[in-house]
Each structure stands twice: as C-alpha cells, then as structure tokens.
TrEMBL record:
Residues 261-270, 444-453 have a biased composition (Basic residues). In the C-terminal section; belongs to the transposase 35 family. Residues 427-443 have a biased composition (Low complexity). This is IS200/IS605 family element transposase accessory protein TnpB.
Length: 453
C-alpha cells in the first residue's frame, strides 16, 4: 500500500451557460495573472531606473513581494478599483492566477540564480486570450456528485461528465482518496476537469515476481521483450500524417496571422487550426493509451524490469529520427514504467547509458566493435548466434540484472528513481501549487505516513 498524489481527469459536457461560466473563470484567472505581472514588472523597472541615478538602496522604491500570499493580499486591496466585476467569479479564480504567477516568478528567479534544475527560463510573459485556458479550485465546494455522472465546482455548480467518475468515486466512498484540488481546462475544443487526489493504492503484486524482463524500446517495433515477444509500433502519427498534410495545405490557403503587418487570422483559418489541434490530440490519446496498456502489463507480470537509460532529448536532435522517436513516446514509456513499478513494488533496473546492449552477443558475451543501425539481424563472429537485433539487446538487458543481483534479497530492493512521484509531489503539495503557506505539521505527517505504507 502506498500513498501517492495522482490526477484523475474527466472530460466534461457543460451546458451552454456553464461554458460561459467556465470561460469567465479562466478569463478571471488570466486577468489576475496579468494584473500581478504588470505590477511586478513596473516595480522592477522603476527600481532599475532609480539605480541608474545612483540612489542609495534605502531610498529606492521598495520592492514588491511576489509570494502568492502577498500577491493575493495586494489583489484583495485593489480588486474593487481594477476589477469591479470580480464578484462574478469565484475568488479561487483570482487566487489561482496569482499562485501561477508566484510559481512562474519563482521559477524564473531560481533559474537565473542557478538553483533551479533544467533549461533556462525567461521572465514570465503576459497571457494572451488563447493561451492555456485553465483555472484551479483549492477551497470551496468541489468534488464528485453522488450519481457518478456529475462533478461539483464552486460557483459553476453541477457539471455533467462525459464518462462515469466511477473509478475515483469508489476510492472516495471507501475513504482511500482525498480530493485536494480541481483544475478545469480547455484543450482542443473540449473542457476537462482534473482532480488532484491523495490516494492510498494497493496494487497487485506481479504474477511472476522472480522473473526479470529486458525491454528494448525502439522505432521499428515499439518494444521487444527478452521473452521473445515483440510489441509492434502502432504508428498512430504516421496514420494521421496524410490527414494532417491535407489540413495544413488547407490552412495555407487561408488567411493566417502576420505579426509584421498586424494581419488578423480569418475565422476559416482558425477553424482549420482547431481541426489540426483535434487531430494531434487524437494521436496523442491513442499513443498514451497504448503505452499505458504496455507499461501496466509489464509491472503486473514481471518482478524486475530492465530498461535502457536512453538519451531521448539527444536522439530528438537527429532530424531524421526525431519524428519517429516522438511518435513512439520512448521517454513517456520509461516514466510510466518507473512510477507504476513503484506502486506495485516492482524493481526497475536502469542499464548504464553506455552499456552496449545492441553490440554485445547475448550468447557468449563478445562485444562487437561496430554495428550499423541498418543491420537488423545480429550475427556473432565468435559463436554462431543469429537472432533479431532488438531481441539480442533485450536479452542482454535481462541478463544484466541476473549478473548484478544474483542474491535473492536484492530482488526486493525498492528502486527510487529521480522521477519518484511520491517524493516530488509531496514536497510540491505543501504550498507552492496552491500558493498557500504550508499548513503546520500536515506535510510532515503526510510524509511519515507515506514511508510507513
Ligand atoms: Zn556470440
């Protein structure tokens, strides 16, 4: 049993009136974000200008705090003047925009100082009307309705869901789940609600706990397992490319926006773009579904899964391979395997990035000096092993764990990868996302419970 933070996302079927209310809340979120950003920006440039006059630091305009708490306090003082209409939306809408702003500014500051991991981030930019439309509710009456076909949202009321909320409802009724926040968003022509849930899961143990499986992820086939099984690449993107090309030709014939001449796009161009977005969403959904089915099956069957540490970002830089690699979703498969393995207590072994899984013979262990990517069949020079290139690699991966963890006690070692969902989410839960100062003690208690489970 593990306690994790998990998201449950449902597509919504709002009425016309509810759609207006949803859009209004998301607009309010954007308004508060932009209002706060404008103030911070003005303050920063005022101070920068004053510094050029050689004013001493104590005579400068005082700097504004950009913590979510202070942003909210300032907003509450100013809202009657800057947004007299604020009462039309739940106060959560404005809080959510300001919390997003606090996170964005914090990320920028951390990135400039070098304390934040990942690529460099720029200063937050104003949100346009068509930027990611979303709004988060952290307090008030939100959750599931009793009949499993509706969700409750503050101010908006009961909104019908496109599918049953059964999966989450059962957990809530049993008392193994607690809904922490609800985020509504608009993506590719459809409204969604995503619940952030603290959930106690009890996943079944793998069917063959003593078995290790090597997984060679590739482009030709999605994955080859050391058991000899091949999971074909469904090529969802390739199937959609024909229609995508047609739509993009169509868009090219229509009036697109032009920044230099200030030309506004036509309604027909927007319509085509919406169709393109819908097609991309369909492809992404199909791909995700396929990866989920594979990763769940792997952790349900095998006690140990051996994967390669692939440099996916590096491979994406190869323009001949980029589309095919993106089309498979290699990094996503590894991410799914790692978090699901943790839930089920399955051991994940990540082979070293420089381990020559393809060049090694799985029969006698001799490493070849060179192996072209076009050579699809592995032929050993020493013994007479002839087998499929990917199957050879998968067998090498599986053998890796047998060699390194031959004692039975090692099989039970819990792997804690960098993307450990339990750890990162628990720290994120206390404060930053909601913009609320961490409630005293709860974070501590929660973490202790997670380790005990
Ligand atoms: Zn050999």
């Amino acid at each position: 049993m593990v306690t994790v933070i998990q998201a449950y996302r449902f597509a919504l079927d709002p009425t016309a009136g509810q759609q207006v209310a949803l859009r209004s809340h998301c607009g309010a979120q954007r308004y508060a974000f932009n209002w706060g950003l404008a103030r911070i920006k003005a303050n920063l440039s005022q101070r920068a200008a004053e510094k050029t006059y050689d004013l001493p630091d104590d005579q400068l305009t005082p700097s504004l705090s950009w913590s979510a708490y202070n942003l909210r306090k300032d907003w509450n003082q100013a809202k009657n003047i800057v947004a007299a209409w604020w009462g039309e939306n739940s106060k959560e809408a404005y809080s959510s925009g300001l919390a997003n702003l606090a996170t964005a500014l914090g990320n920028w500051a951390g990135s400039t100082k070098g304390t934040r991991k990942g690529s460099r981030l720029g200063f937050p930019r104003f949100k346009g009307r068509r930027s990611g439309v979303s709004c988060r509710f952290t307090t008030g009456a939100f959750g599931l309705a009793d009949d499993r076909r509706y969700v409750k949202l503050p101010r908006i009321g009961l909104v019908r869901t496109h599918e049953s909320t059964r999966k989450l409802a059962r957990h809530v009724e049993r008392g193994t789940a607690r809904i922490r926040s609800a985020t509504v968003s608009y993506r590719a022509g459809r409204w969604f609600v995503s619940f952030s849930v603290e959930i106690t899961r009890s996943d079944p143990a793998p069917a063959r706990p003593r078995n290790a499986v090597g997984v060679d992820v590739g482009v030709k086939s999605l994955a080859v397992l050391s058991s000899g099984e091949t999971i074909p690449n469904p090529r969802h993107l390739e199937t959609a490319l024909r229609e995508l090309r047609r739509l993009q030709r169509q868009a090219a014939r229509r009036v697109s926006p032009d920044r230099r001449t200030q030309r506004r796009p036509s309604a027909r161009w927007r319509r085509t773009q919406a169709r393109v977005a819908r097609l991309h969403t369909a492809v992404a959904n199909a791909r995700r579904d396929c990866l989920h089915k594979l990763s769940t099956r792997l952790v349900r069957t095998h006690g140990t899964i051996v994967v390669e540490d692939l440099n996916v970002a590096g491979m994406m830089r190869n323009r001949r391979l980029a589309r095919h690699i993106a089309g498979v979703g290699m990094a996503e498969l590894r991410r799914q395997i790692e978090y699901k393995a943790q839930w089920a207590g399955v051991h994940v072994h990540v082979a070293d990035r420089w381990y020559p899984s393809s060049k090694t013979c799985s029969g006698c262990g001799v490493v070849k000096a060179k192996l072209r990517l076009s050579e699809r069949t592995f032929r050993c020079d020493e013994c007479d092993l002839v087998c499929d290139r990917d199957l050879n690699a998968a067998r090498n991966l599986a053998a890796l764990v047998h060699r390194e963890t031959s004692s039975p006690s090692c099989g039970a070692t819990q792997n804690e990868p960098a993307g450990n969902p339990r750890k990162t989410r628990a720290t994120r839960a206390t404060g930053t996302a909601t913009g609320r100062p961490a409630p005293t003690g709860t974070g501590q208690r929660r973490r202790r419970k997670a380790t005990a489970a």
